[in-house]
Design brief:
Elements (H helix, E strand, L loop, with lengths): L1 H26 L18 H11 L3 H14 L18 H10 L8 E8 L4 H11 L5 H9 L3 E7 L1 H13 L2 E5 L1
Antiparallel strand pairs: 1-2, 1-3
Length: about 180
Protein backbone atom coordinates (compact mmCIF):
# COMPACT_ATOMS: atom_id res chain seq x y z
CA UNK A 1 0.00 0.00 0.00
CA UNK A 2 2.77 2.43 0.90
CA UNK A 3 4.63 1.67 -2.31
CA UNK A 4 1.62 2.32 -4.56
CA UNK A 5 0.89 5.68 -2.91
CA UNK A 6 4.55 6.63 -3.30
CA UNK A 7 4.49 5.73 -6.98
CA UNK A 8 1.32 7.80 -7.51
CA UNK A 9 2.75 10.83 -5.70
CA UNK A 10 5.91 10.72 -7.81
CA UNK A 11 4.17 9.94 -11.11
CA UNK A 12 1.58 12.75 -10.91
CA UNK A 13 4.06 15.64 -11.00
CA UNK A 14 5.99 13.97 -13.83
CA UNK A 15 2.86 13.54 -15.93
CA UNK A 16 1.69 17.09 -15.32
CA UNK A 17 5.12 18.48 -16.22
CA UNK A 18 5.06 16.64 -19.53
CA UNK A 19 1.70 18.18 -20.41
CA UNK A 20 2.96 21.64 -19.51
CA UNK A 21 5.99 21.24 -21.73
CA UNK A 22 3.97 19.93 -24.66
CA UNK A 23 1.42 22.71 -24.36
CA UNK A 24 4.21 25.29 -24.18
CA UNK A 25 5.72 23.93 -27.39
CA UNK A 26 2.38 24.05 -29.17
CA UNK A 27 1.80 27.66 -28.15
CA UNK A 28 5.28 28.84 -29.19
CA UNK A 29 4.13 29.21 -32.80
CA UNK A 30 1.10 31.31 -31.83
CA UNK A 31 1.68 35.07 -31.91
CA UNK A 32 1.86 36.76 -28.53
CA UNK A 33 -1.15 39.02 -27.98
CA UNK A 34 -0.35 42.66 -27.28
CA UNK A 35 -1.79 43.77 -23.93
CA UNK A 36 -3.95 46.86 -23.80
CA UNK A 37 -2.10 50.02 -22.82
CA UNK A 38 1.28 48.46 -23.61
CA UNK A 39 2.80 51.73 -24.72
CA UNK A 40 2.34 51.25 -28.48
CA UNK A 41 1.10 54.57 -29.75
CA UNK A 42 -1.74 54.60 -32.21
CA UNK A 43 -0.29 57.67 -33.89
CA UNK A 44 2.60 55.71 -35.43
CA UNK A 45 3.07 55.67 -39.20
CA UNK A 46 1.69 52.83 -41.26
CA UNK A 47 5.20 51.55 -41.94
CA UNK A 48 6.05 51.34 -38.23
CA UNK A 49 2.70 49.73 -37.42
CA UNK A 50 3.24 47.04 -40.07
CA UNK A 51 6.75 46.31 -38.70
CA UNK A 52 5.36 46.01 -35.17
CA UNK A 53 2.64 43.65 -36.37
CA UNK A 54 5.17 41.47 -38.20
CA UNK A 55 7.48 41.33 -35.15
CA UNK A 56 4.50 40.38 -32.96
CA UNK A 57 3.89 37.36 -35.21
CA UNK A 58 7.46 36.04 -34.75
CA UNK A 59 8.29 33.16 -32.44
CA UNK A 60 10.76 33.61 -29.62
CA UNK A 61 13.56 31.99 -31.63
CA UNK A 62 12.86 34.19 -34.63
CA UNK A 63 12.79 37.28 -32.41
CA UNK A 64 16.17 36.33 -30.99
CA UNK A 65 17.55 35.93 -34.51
CA UNK A 66 16.09 39.32 -35.45
CA UNK A 67 17.79 40.99 -32.50
CA UNK A 68 21.14 39.42 -33.41
CA UNK A 69 20.76 40.48 -37.05
CA UNK A 70 19.95 44.07 -36.02
CA UNK A 71 22.98 44.15 -33.71
CA UNK A 72 25.20 42.95 -36.55
CA UNK A 73 23.69 45.38 -39.08
CA UNK A 74 24.09 48.47 -36.87
CA UNK A 75 27.32 47.37 -35.10
CA UNK A 76 25.70 47.43 -31.67
CA UNK A 77 27.99 46.18 -28.91
CA UNK A 78 26.48 45.05 -25.63
CA UNK A 79 27.99 46.98 -22.75
CA UNK A 80 27.54 46.27 -19.08
CA UNK A 81 26.40 49.37 -17.23
CA UNK A 82 28.10 49.72 -13.88
CA UNK A 83 25.94 51.25 -11.17
CA UNK A 84 27.94 53.29 -8.70
CA UNK A 85 27.07 55.22 -5.55
CA UNK A 86 23.96 57.32 -4.93
CA UNK A 87 25.60 60.57 -6.03
CA UNK A 88 26.53 59.30 -9.49
CA UNK A 89 24.71 60.73 -12.53
CA UNK A 90 22.46 58.32 -14.41
CA UNK A 91 22.64 59.76 -17.97
CA UNK A 92 25.04 58.30 -20.54
CA UNK A 93 26.59 61.62 -21.64
CA UNK A 94 26.65 62.96 -18.11
CA UNK A 95 28.32 59.79 -16.88
CA UNK A 96 31.13 60.20 -19.41
CA UNK A 97 31.83 63.75 -18.20
CA UNK A 98 31.50 62.99 -14.49
CA UNK A 99 34.97 61.47 -13.85
CA UNK A 100 36.65 64.66 -15.07
CA UNK A 101 34.67 66.85 -12.66
CA UNK A 102 34.42 64.47 -9.71
CA UNK A 103 36.78 64.85 -6.77
CA UNK A 104 38.54 61.71 -5.59
CA UNK A 105 36.36 59.93 -3.07
CA UNK A 106 37.92 59.72 0.36
CA UNK A 107 38.26 56.18 1.59
CA UNK A 108 36.13 55.46 4.67
CA UNK A 109 36.83 51.77 5.29
CA UNK A 110 40.29 50.31 5.72
CA UNK A 111 42.02 46.96 6.09
CA UNK A 112 44.62 46.84 8.83
CA UNK A 113 47.40 44.49 7.72
CA UNK A 114 50.30 43.22 9.82
CA UNK A 115 53.29 43.21 7.45
CA UNK A 116 56.18 42.12 9.70
CA UNK A 117 57.33 42.19 13.29
CA UNK A 118 60.54 42.88 15.14
CA UNK A 119 61.78 39.50 16.43
CA UNK A 120 62.88 41.03 19.76
CA UNK A 121 59.37 42.45 20.34
CA UNK A 122 57.44 39.34 19.25
CA UNK A 123 55.90 38.63 22.68
CA UNK A 124 54.55 42.19 22.99
CA UNK A 125 53.06 42.05 19.49
CA UNK A 126 51.39 38.71 20.28
CA UNK A 127 49.81 40.18 23.43
CA UNK A 128 48.60 43.25 21.54
CA UNK A 129 47.08 41.11 18.76
CA UNK A 130 45.35 39.00 21.42
CA UNK A 131 43.87 42.17 22.90
CA UNK A 132 42.76 43.56 19.50
CA UNK A 133 41.02 40.49 18.14
CA UNK A 134 38.14 39.22 20.29
CA UNK A 135 37.93 35.50 21.12
CA UNK A 136 41.59 34.87 20.21
CA UNK A 137 43.67 32.92 22.69
CA UNK A 138 47.42 33.23 23.16
CA UNK A 139 48.29 30.23 20.96
CA UNK A 140 46.12 31.49 18.10
CA UNK A 141 47.62 34.99 18.46
CA UNK A 142 51.13 33.49 18.25
CA UNK A 143 50.25 31.57 15.05
CA UNK A 144 48.64 34.70 13.63
CA UNK A 145 51.74 36.84 14.26
CA UNK A 146 54.09 34.19 12.89
CA UNK A 147 52.08 33.93 9.66
CA UNK A 148 52.52 37.65 8.84
CA UNK A 149 51.73 39.37 6.48
CA UNK A 150 48.09 38.97 7.46
CA UNK A 151 44.98 41.16 7.72
CA UNK A 152 44.18 41.99 11.33
CA UNK A 153 40.85 43.73 10.81
CA UNK A 154 38.80 44.41 7.71
CA UNK A 155 36.34 47.25 7.01
CA UNK A 156 37.23 49.47 9.95
CA UNK A 157 36.89 53.25 10.15
CA UNK A 158 39.88 55.50 9.60
CA UNK A 159 40.07 56.49 13.28
CA UNK A 160 40.00 52.88 14.48
CA UNK A 161 42.55 51.82 11.85
CA UNK A 162 44.93 54.62 12.91
CA UNK A 163 44.47 53.63 16.56
CA UNK A 164 45.31 49.97 15.84
CA UNK A 165 48.29 50.96 13.69
CA UNK A 166 49.68 53.26 16.39
CA UNK A 167 49.27 50.59 19.11
CA UNK A 168 51.00 47.88 17.07
CA UNK A 169 53.82 50.12 15.89
CA UNK A 170 54.46 51.10 19.52
CA UNK A 171 55.22 47.45 20.35
CA UNK A 172 57.44 46.82 17.31
CA UNK A 173 55.19 45.73 14.43
CA UNK A 174 55.04 47.09 10.89
CA UNK A 175 51.40 47.79 9.96
CA UNK A 176 49.92 48.92 6.64
CA UNK A 177 46.48 50.44 6.04
CA UNK A 178 44.88 49.40 2.76
Amino acid sequence: MFRSSLVRSVARPLVSRRFVQVSAIRRSTDPIPTPEGSGISTGASAKVTSIVDKVAELTLLETSQLVEALKAKFNIIEAVQVVSGAGAPSGGAAAAEAPAEEKPVEKTEFKVKLEKIDAAQKAKVIREIKNLIPDMNLVAAKKFVESAPKVIKDSVSKEEAEKIKKALEAVGATVVLE
